[in-house]
Structures are given as C-alpha cells and as structure tokens.
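Why does this matter for the project? Reviewers at the last site visit asked to see concrete outputs rather than summary tables. In response, this paragraph embeds two records directly. Each consists of the residue sequence and, immediately after it, the corresponding structure tokens. Nothing has been edited or filtered.
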Amino acid sequence: HLIPSGDVLNINAYFKVQTPVSEPGWWLFVHILDANGTKVAERASLPRTDYPIAQWQAGEQVVVNADVPVVLPAGDYTLVMGFFRPSDGARMIIAGSDDGSWQMPIHVQR
C-alpha cells in the first residue's frame, strides 16, 4: 500500500465479531513502525463513539474508521492495529494473532 508523506492514512477496518465483548473500555490502537520496529506514528481512541464495543454482537461485521497523519520520510513501514484496555494496557485476544494485533506492510512515498 502506497501512502504519500504528509497525507492522512484513512483506515476503514472491518471487524467480524466472533464473541461479544462484555467490557466497554476497549480502545483501538494504530501504530506505524519503521524498519527497526520503532513506533513513528500512532493513534488510540474508542473504536466507535456512536456504537460502543460492548454492544457489538456475535456474527456482526463492524466498520471502524481511523485516520493517522503520516509525516514520515519515504520508506517501508509496518502498520499495526488492535484493541487495548487503557486501564492496564492489556491487548485483546485476537484469533490468529500471538500478540493481539494485525500487521500489514505499507510504503510511504514522497
């Protein structure tokens, strides 16, 4: 995925709910890591202010929008996304993930 530097990366993430979440305090995090694994950009917020995560139902597909400003040098990066609990930093368990996140390579161009 190519992203112009100085632009905003607009993420539309589609989540398929496997099991309802009874705890309302989960936030979405989006990190951008450089080639050394250093976090160079981030965003953390409630996944949806209009539809709390504790109301999501099993089998439902929920769309979450997240904008991340990308003011970075040209190069290859990794987008990391998941859910965490701000009270203690714990990450939500995600099917198919060892660390509670999804990762995707991105390329920033000038």
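We now turn to the second protein, recorded in exactly the same manner.
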Amino acid sequence: PVTLQLASPDGSTIATGHRNGLIVLRDAATGKEISRLESHSQPIVGMTFDKAGKRLISCGKAPVRGRGDDDDLEPSERIVELKLWDIPKGTVTRNFDGARESQGIAFAPDE
C-alpha cells in the first residue's frame, strides 16, 4: 500500500512511497511508471523534491532491533533512514545514518 504521495515542483512527476520501502516515480500526465527507487526496508514516511526536481530526500522507518514496533516511543526517540537520491540516475548519493524522526524534511531554499 501507498503511505504517501508527492508531486515534483513542476508537476511533471508523482512520487509514491510504499509500506514496503519502495518509491515509485510516475509521469503525472500519463501515469506511466518512470522508475523505481529501492533502498529502504521499512515504510516510507516522508519525501521531498529539490526545486529542480532532480533530487529527492526520502525518509523511511528504521528497523527496530529487539522490538516489534516503535509506536510507543516519542517521535524524537524514533530512528529513521534518510536517503538523498539522484533522480536521473536512480541512485542513492548519500545516507544520513542515525537520524531522528521529525515533523518534516526539506531542501534549503537556495538548493
């Protein structure tokens, strides 16, 4: 199932984050799949495009060692996986390990 969806800044691409950690990019006009970004192992809980639509930051729940779930933890105690994607190449260019869950993710306005 889809956990969230997001349009690129120019509206040409729709990104959907899925419960299995998959991100699917689709052409907004046709609905045709453009690519699949596979690297997360847990549900996608946040995404944002840069203003050019060439990079994407994704946020996925991190596996909880020795626990079934982290729902009883405060958001600031939950660990997430943050990844920076190069959209044209379909590759992760940077992992941000040990990040804490927050209310949102964004690129700096001048990015």
